[in-house]
Structures are given as structure tokens and as C-alpha cells.
Design goal:
CATH class of the largest domain: Alpha Beta
Distance between the termini: 82 Å
Helix content: 25-40%
CATH superfamily of the largest domain: Bira Bifunctional Protein, Domain 2
Number of helices: 11
Order of helices and strands: HHHHHEEHEEHEEHEEEHEHH
Structural class: alpha+beta
CATH topology of the largest domain: BirA Bifunctional Protein, domain 2
């Protein structure tokens, strides 16, 4: 029996596991399973003379532990070996990390916010899907106003009361950020000095100077004694900080339902230098914003007494301003996500 044990131990020592899972499994099946070689020796222990059982049993236990330790060592060596596919090829060239860049429209919007923050304005925001009551009615839009027509507005839900008519329960994609001004005046008391940036939507033909979705930033100032002179001073201060001290401005009388008097403000076209191009429609000027004194009806609709308070409001397209700053002659490039264009603003 002792000779058999020594013979099996020699086989265990000689068995080449070769760092392979298949070899380890073959080793386990031969020596360590219930009907393996070592287990068979334990079954034969009962035939060993009583006076030898103690010494033979100890040899068998030592053999079993030795075989198990060899298998465990082989498995540990296999698990610690690096996988072939995870090895690093030090001959490869380095990998460049490509970092994203801030979109030019967002860069301009950030600068616009910074300028207005410096003039004492604070930020307000609101939903992009808006009620007709906030988008039109409270802003003094008559029921038959052209802006209510499907050619200008994306309606989410529209009443069937007739062409040009609209109910307070109509739901639209906001056509301007003016509803944020309405919500602010309904929830806060004067003095109010806020800017309202965000996306707006217009059902317009896409061209070099207009798009169906764009960013807008509007401003509102309501207090006692606010005049049109305050409005012009704010616009001039913004334009000089945004476009430089040499910028040229002109105010043209205009009409908006929510302001009276109203004006549109143009800057000399930076793209063509005032000579005329497709962006400025050959006029040499580019409109950047509309503005005016808040209409008394709007103040009343928002619970503010126009006999005590007055205010001004303005709104401008961020993309149009970005076109001026960077000399871009087509608004559509801002929405194409062309990496060649965007990489210029890293």
C-alpha cells in the first residue's frame, strides 16, 4: 500500500499542468474526483492491517493535500496571467484625445447674458410648449392677428372656432420668449428687470437668414418712470459691448402688439461692410432686435397698473448676432453640426 502511495505521488509530481485550464481539468478528473486514483486508495484503506492503518492513513492524507495544493497553485497562476488581448503594444503611436468645443451660438449667448447681468438684469426661463393665453392673448394679440395663422405658428392643439381665431386653451410651440415675461409679471411685483433666453419656433421658410427654430433673448424692465430714453441707452450699451465701440445703430419705427411705441434696431452689416449682401438683403444694415415700451394693455393683463408703472421690452435672435460676430453668411450652418465649422471655435 505504501508503495502504491509513493507511485501515485510520483505521478502527481510529474503531471504537467502547463498553465492550461484543460490540463488542470484532466488532472482533477484523474486524481481528485470521487472515483479518482486517490479516492480509490482511501477505499482500499480498510484492507490494511490494523497496526499499519495510522501510518498509511497519514500518507494518504498528505498525498491528497499535496495534489490539491498543486491544482490550486496552477489555477492561481492561470488567473493571474495577463490575457493576450489585454497586453499593451508599446510600439503603437499615441492616441490623441479629441475635446469638444462650445457651439458658437452658445458662446454668443453666454456673452449676451454676461453683458445684461452687468446692467442689473436677472435670468428667467419658461416652457417651450406654451398656452395661447401666454404666447398671444395676454401680449395684446387680437384674435385675427396674422401671427396666429398656421403659416407662422406651430400649433400643438388648435381650436376649431374658425380661421384666424384662437382660444385660450390652444397649445403652441412658443414663437418668442415673451411668455416668460408674462409669467414673470404675473408672479412678481415691480421693479422687474429680467432677461429671458431660450429656443423659439416659427413656421417659416428656411433660408440664409431665417430658420424654423432659433434662439432668442428678450429683456424686460418695469418700474416707475421708465422711458424710451432708458431703452435706447440699454440697447446702445449692449451693442457697444457686443460689437465694439465703433458700431453704428439705427432705430426704425415699427409695430408690435405688445409695445407702443415700437422700434426695430439695425446694425451696419459686418459681413459686407455696408455694401450689401444676401444676408442684409443688399441694404447694408442687419436687424438685430425689436423693442418698445410695454403696451398698457399688457401691463393690465398681468395685474400691473399702467397709471403707476411703465416699462420697456426688447428681443433679439442669438443666431443673427452670432452671424455678425463671426462673419457667417448663412444661418443654416449653425444647425448642420458640421465638425469642420464647429472646430473653428475651439
Amino acid at each position: 500500500m505504501q508503495e502504491q502511495i509513493e507511485k501515485i505521488k510520483a505521478e502527481v509530481e510529474a503531471f504537467d499542468l502547463n498553465g492550461s485550464e484543460a490540463h488542470a481539468e484532466a488532472y482533477r478528473l484523474k486524481f481528485l474526483v470521487r472515483k479518482g486514483v486517490i479516492a480509490t486508495l482511501f477505499d482500499e484503506l480498510k484492507s490494511v492491517p490494523k497496526e499499519e492503518k495510522g501510518s498509511v492513513g497519514k500518507m494518504l492524507n498528505d498525498l491528497k493535500r499535496f495534489a490539491e495544493q498543486k491544482l490550486e497553485s496552477a489555477k492561481a497562476a492561470t488567473s493571474n496571467a495577463p490575457a493576450e488581448e489585454s497586453l499593451i503594444d508599446l510600439t503603437l503611436t499615441g492616441r490623441r484625445q479629441f475635446l469638444g468645443a462650445e457651439h458658437p451660438v452658445q458662446k454668443v449667448l453666454s456673452d449676451m447674458k454676461r453683458i445684461f447681468y452687468g446692467m442689473g438684469f436677472t435670468l428667467r426661463s419658461g416652457p417651450e410648449i406654451e398656452l395661447d393665453d401666454y404666447n398671444f392673448t395676454k401680449l395684446n394679440f387680437p384674435a385675427g392677428h396674422p401671427a396666429r395663422d398656421m403659416q407662422d405658428t406651430f400649433f400643438i392643439r388648435k381650436s376649431e372656432s374658425g380661421k384666424g381665431e384662437s382660444g385660450k386653451d390652444d397649445v403652441v410651440l412658443r414663437t418668442h420668449t415673451s411668455p416668460v415675461q408674462v409669467r414673470t409679471m404675473l408672479s412678481e411685483k415691480p421693479p422687474i428687470r429680467v432677461i429671458c433666453p431660450g429656443k423659439v419656433y416659427r413656421n417659416e421658410a428656411v433660408s440664409a437668414r431665417s430658420y424654423c427654430v432659433f434662439h432668442q433673448i428678450e429683456g424686460l424692465y418695469v418700474d416707475t418712470g421708465v422711458t424710451f430714453a432708458d431703452l435706447k441707452a440699454t440697447i446702445y450699451s449692449f451693442a457697444k459691448q457686443m460689437f465694439g465701440s465703433e458700431v453704428k445703430l439705427r432705430f426704425r419705427p415699427s409695430y408690435f402688439p405688445f409695445t407702443e411705441p415700437s422700434a426695430e434696431t439695425d446694425v451696419s452689416c459686418y459681413i459686407c461692410g455696408g455694401k450689401g449682401c444676401k444676408v442684409c438683403k443688399q441694404s447694408g444694415w442687419l436687424e438685430i432686435l425689436g423693442c418698445g415700451m410695454v403696451h398698457p394693455n399688457v401691463l393690465r393683463n398681468c395685474g400691473i397698473d399702467p397709471e403707476i408703472y411703465s416699462g420697456y421690452a426688447f428681443g433679439m435672435g442669438v443666431e443673427r448676432t452670432a452671424m455678425l460676430r463671426y462673419g457667417v453668411d448663412d444661418i443654416r450652418v449653425f444647425f448642420e453640426n458640421d465638425v469642420r465649422m464647429l472646430s473653428q471655435f475651439e
